[in-house]
Amino acid sequence: MKSICLLCAALFLLSCKTDTAWPTPEDLIDPLTLGDGSGYPGSAWDRAPSPEALGWSSRQLEEVNERARQNGSDALLVVDRGVAVWEYGDIAKVHVIQSARKSFLSVLYGIAWARHEVDLTATLEELGIDDLPPSLTAEEKQADVEELLMARSGVYHEAAAESQSMKDARPARGSHPHGTFWYYNNWDFNALGTIYRQRTGEDIFQSLYERIGLPLQMEDWDPGDGFYQYEAVSMHPAYHMNMSARDMARFGLLMARKGRWRQSQILPQEWVARSTRPGSDAGANWNYGYLWWVGKPEKWNGRVLYAARGGSGHMIVVVPDQEIVVVHRVNPATYANGWTEVEDIIRQALAAKIL
């Protein structure tokens, strides 16, 4: 009995020690003391000496790791104020990001908008945008660029890279006037790619490399990692991208920093605000902005956040007021779960921030 009591006492003390190992405000370090002191990654991510040093719980993050493993997640990367705090899986692995591609195009649009190369009020008719028969109607051609960015064009033509669920949910042609109804519409997203190339004279992937990849010192992105998907149903291709989790996190940090990277304002602050403003109700947990999913705070423990989302689990989550970025990846060939599981992993990861 005595030995059992001693064992219980030892376990109790150990558990107390684990709890009291959590940081106090006095234990925290300034992330600007890491790396080159800029608060931005250089050729590689600067890493915290421990999660606790930046106010995170290693124990809780280990639990996130286990949950990600059980879920079949491919990679997870947590960044706090420009410093990598935690990672799971192969964050250097390059594979398709699926519909998260659309948020990258949003940023390219913001850069082009600042250069006065795109006009958000320009209509499809003014831009000369049409499609294969059955061609767009005169009414459909009155949709403007901003309505496409918000997935509110009212153009329900067949599109490249539509999932079966998108096809099933697509409204009938002419059922909703432009600007009046939100539908997650690959036609809008793909036509935006055509308009971008038309108005800027630039290839999407080369533009992403020069205007975002190079300034952010992305470690893996190359224009050859992008490819267009044409289908017989439409003249507007989908623009797919293969990218690593660690490069997606740089993109998220650019947004968290309101478009600034070191001494350069790459993306206007006004565009960051406009593109991540809730414009449409997009379901239980989300609203929708300009190609960004905007979290409903009541569904995210009161947090204000937004995300790029693709497939069943590719996600870049940005919590701007804390400058936190969480990237989650899946292998589309093998992943068997869905968004509920992924979003629960994100919530659990964010909850590991204890100070």
> Taking all residues together, what is the mean pLDDT?
94
Question: Which CATH first-tier class of the largest domain would you pick?
Answer: Alpha Beta
What strand order characterises the main sheet? Answer: 2-1-13-12-11-10-9-8
List segments where confidence is low: pLDDT < 50 over at least 5 consecutive residues: 1-20
Q: Which strand-content bin applies to the residues?
A: 15-25%
Number of strands: 13
- What is the third-level CATH name, the topology of the largest domain? Beta-Lactamase
Rg from Cα: 22 Å
H/E topology pattern: HHEEEHHHHHHEEHEEHEEEEEEH
Distance between the termini: 41 Å
Shape: globular
Which class do the helix and strand fractions yield?
alpha+beta
Number of domains: 2
Under the CATH scheme, the architecture of the largest domain is 2-Layer Sandwich
Helix content: 25-40%
- What is the count of DSSP helices, taking H or I runs of 4+ residues? 11
Q: Could you describe the largest sheet, including whether it forms a barrel?
A: 8 strands, antiparallel
Plain-language structure description:
- The longest helix is centred in the first third of the chain and has 19 residues, at 2-20.
- The chain folds into two domains: 23-92 and 254-262 and 281-355, Beta-Lactamase (2-Layer Sandwich); 94-243, DD-peptidase/beta-lactamase superfamily (Beta-lactamase), CATH 3.40.710.10.
- The chain has an eight-stranded antiparallel beta sheet with strand order 2-1-13-12-11-10-9-8, with helices on both faces.
- The protein has eleven helices and 13 strands.
- The protein has helices at residues 2-20, 58-71, 101-114, 124-127, 145-149, 164-169, 186-200, 204-213, 245-256, 269-275, 339-351, and strands at 75-80, 83-89, 95-96, 226-231, 234-243, 260-261, 264-265, 280-281, 286-288, 293-295, 306-310, 314-319, 324-329.
- Strand 6 (260-261) and strand 7 form a beta hairpin.
- Helix 2 runs antiparallel to helix 11, helix 3 (101-114) packs parallel to helix 7 and helix 3 (101-114) crosses helix 8.
- The chain has 355 residues and is α+β, with helices and mostly antiparallel strands.
- The model is unreliable at 1-20 (pLDDT under 50).
- Helix content is 34%, strand content 17%.
